[in-house]
Design brief:
Length: about 350
């Protein structure tokens, strides 16, 4: 890889994790609101970006706390170690529990601690009477896996799934994490200067999810290909351009805590924000992505965080407003995780560090 390309890739690594952080920190104040006024959000972002505004730092939530655990575990072990990951999630939660964790995942942490991490996947399988959680908690934290597996698609798919299964044993929970990881991975491999073909971005995701959802054929599901169905909705909505009302986006794709009703939504936010969106005044497509994701309401921190990771991996760190970054707790640590992951990946693939 040429030096210029490696500088660009390093910037995309930072963009990904910083993008995820910004979505979490800036989206969190609006979590659980049914719909957020675009006018209110425009003022909120304008003020945060304003040169003289020194508001208190915006705290991160569980989305970032768990992303941090995955980044640290990968950096230390240079592979995905499920037992180590489980220990880090538990330690992180019990040392700092007030970060807005999902209501049920906490039971997994308690059980893992009680059984002393003998089976890191066991407690997750017991959730919801044995069906496992379909929440988006595995998807929201998966970005470091996408960075770590930059050079290997097959490894990306298997590692994203294993990283998810520590807490999310339901196929909708772990496949949501796999889809989010694949979307970030696609962004990392595209050059923003060449412009984005939004249709082929979605079609590629549909093709890849077809191979993954094949594994669920024996489960006797009502819809055996739920993520492909949602991605087809994403494509149909994109085909209709800027005329689609927010209420319809929410009705078709969802904006809640279920991975099936939030991961495709985050992908749609990134892709739709390639073009201007009515009521959002900014020339910066990264900011447009976040502002639009939050405006849909519901699980705002997580949808904005996932959309931010995909967008940041596409545009790179340089495209993200420094003023917005300054308002986010843990910024310098997150930048360092991305830099260290880049050095690790570069060393493994003989790229200039
Ligand atoms: O998925 P998880 O880690 O939650 C992540 C969300 C993000 O929005 C974070 O920002 C934070 O706010 O929480 O945590 P879980 O507890 O596994 O799942 C979240 C919620 O999804 C649960 O509390 C349930 O309300 C719902 N849920 C289910 N409900 C019924 N049946 C998840 N799986 C099921 C299910 O199988
Ligand atoms: Mg959260
Ligand atoms: Mg959330």
């Amino acid at each position: 890889m040429a030096l210029a390309e490696s500088i660009l890739l390093a910037s995309k690594f930072r963009g990904c994790l910083v993008g995820a952080l910004l979505g979490d920190c800036l989206g969190a104040p609006y979590e659980a609101e049914t719909k957020v006024s675009k006018i209110v959000l425009q003022k909120y972002f304008d003020k945060l970006e304003g040169q003289y505004f020194k508001s208190p730092v915006k705290p991160y939530t569980d989305d970032t706390a768990m992303t941090k655990c995955i980044a640290e575990s990968l950096l230390e072990h240079k592979k995905l170690d499920a037992s180590d990951l489980a220990k880090r999630f538990v330690k992180e939660y019990f040392s700092d529990p007030r970060r807005g964790y999902g209501a049920n995942v906490v039971d997994v942490f308690r059980k893992l601690r009680t059984q002393k991490f003998v089976d890191p996947f066991g407690p997750a399988r017991e959730q919801f009477e044995g069906s496992g959680s379909y929440g988006n908690g595995a998807a929201m934290r998966v970005s470091p896996v996408a960075l770590f597996c930059h050079d290997s698609y097959d490894e990306l798919v298997s590692m994203a799934r294993v990283s998810a299964e520590v807490t999310h044993a339901n196929h909708l929970g772990f496949n949501g994490a796999v889809l989010q990881a694949i979307a970030v991975h696609q962004s990392l491999h595209l050059n923003a200067k060449e412009g984005l073909d939004v249709t082929s971005f979605v079609l590629d995701l549909i093709t890849k999810m077809a191979a993954i959802e094949k594994d669920d054929e024996g489960l006797g599901l009502e819809d055996p290909t739920p993520y492909q169905t949602q991605l087809k909705h994403v494509k149909e909505l994109l085909d209709r351009g800027d005329g689609v009302e927010d209420a319809e986006v929410v009705r078709q794709l969802g904006n809640n805590v279920a991975a099936l009703f939030s991961v495709p939504t985050a992908i749609y936010c990134f892709l739709r924000a390639q073009e201007d969106i009515e009521g959002i005044k900014t020339d910066n497509p990264f900011r447009r992505t976040l502002q639009y994701a939050i405006s849909l309401g519901g699980d705002t921190d997580t949808i904005a965080s996932m959309a931010g990771a995909i967008a940041g991996a596409y545009y790179g760190h340089g495209a993200i407003s420094e003023a917005l970054q300054r308002h986010c707790e843990l910024l310098s640590e997150v930048v360092k995780y991305a830099e260290d992951l880049y050095v690790l990946v570069a060393a493994q693939s003989n790229v200039p560090p």
